[in-house]
Design goal:
- By secondary structure, the protein is of the alpha/beta class.
- It contains eleven helices and eight strands.
- Strands 1, 2, 3, 4, 5, 6, 7 and 8 form an eight-stranded mixed beta sheet that branches.
- Helix 4 links the parallel strand 1 and strand 2.
- The chain starts with 13 loop residues before the first helix and ends with a strand.
């Protein structure tokens, strides 16, 4: 079995980039729903970053706009937010949403995080929500962010905590494995949402990159799916995850029906009124550049 790449070793990002390009349209279409579903994680990031009016902030792996839009509102028209992502359709969607909201001081840039060329000491703070797990070279990203921050500048990364705390990601995948459709062996070196879930991993990497006052905390919240029943959950998952959909298609018709039944059964415990309230946990890691 191939070993997973070390978090300290660069890994090829071609396959990762292709996956995100393929999924971009769905993420753009579902941007508002996903933002609502993960609001608890965004709140924890903003609380740790503490954006102020007139500040210049950097948002890495911005996707179609979360938390960039909230940050732009916080800094106001005399501030600046630069939102970057390697996936052009997501950046284009964010640009349109920012202009529609009148947030003209939100700038966008299509660029992989490890290739960013930013002026030294040009930002008061930087953040990344659920993107660091997929960076091809996280140490290089941290080095570039450190150079771009002013002395005493803040950085906040939010990543998913361990799988056992996040049934949103594990329920359907585990059932597909049980029914005979495991993760293909060729995908074992592909980054997962749990790449940085081990407690202390990301905090250690920030410390190694020269950040000080590094603190990591676990934050529990609920991923709220409005107007979604347990019977609809798997279909929503398949629409948002191409790898999961490919695994589902390998099952027989009977096993596909069984997958829907089993997922609905396990998710039924999270039903409340007309929504699913799925427990989740993220890790919030904060650091500062030396004064």
């Amino acid at each position: 079995m191939p070993s997973k790449p070390s978090p300290h070793s660069p890994r090829s990002d071609e396959a990762e980039q292709a996956r995100w390009e393929q999924a971009a349209a769905t993420w753009v279409d579902d941007a508002d729903d996903i933002a609502f579903m993960t609001q608890g994680a965004t709140d924890s990031l903003i609380s740790a970053l503490r954006p102020l009016p007139r500040e210049s902030l950097l948002d890495l792996a911005c996707g179609p706009g979360d938390p960039s839009l909230s940050l732009a509102k916080s800094v106001g028209a005399e501030g600046r937010v630069l939102s970057t992502d390697a996936v052009a359709p997501m950046v284009a969607a964010l640009h349109q949403r920012a202009r529609a909201a009148g947030l003209d001081w939100l700038e966008t840039l299509v660029c992989p995080a490890q290739e960013l060329r930013l002026p030294p000491a040009s930002f008061d703070g930087a953040c990344c929500r659920f993107g660091a797990m997929f960076f091809a070279d996280l140490p290089e990203v941290l080095a570039r962010v450190s150079r771009a921050l002013v002395p005493g500048g803040r950085v906040v990364f939010v990543v998913w905590a361990e799988a056992r705390f996040n049934p949103y990601f594990t329920c359907a995948s585990g059932i597909l494995t049980d029914l005979g459709s495991p993760v293909p062996s060729g995908d074992e070196q592909t980054a997962t949402v749990f790449e940085l879930a081990e407690p202390g991993n990301l905090a250690g990497q920030l410390t190694a990159a020269g950040f000080v006052q590094v603190q990591g905390t676990a934050h529990d919240f609920h991923m709220v799916h409005e107007d979604t029943s347990s019977e609809q959950f798997l279909a929503r998952q398949l629409a948002r995850s191409n790898p999961l959909a490919e695994r589902f298609e390998r099952l027989s018709d009977a096993d596909q029906a069984e997958a829907h039944r089993l997922v609905a059964e396990r998710m039924s415990g999270y039903e409340q009124d007309d929504a699913l309230l799925i427990p989740a946990q993220c890790l919030v890691v904060r650091g500062e550049t030396a004064q």
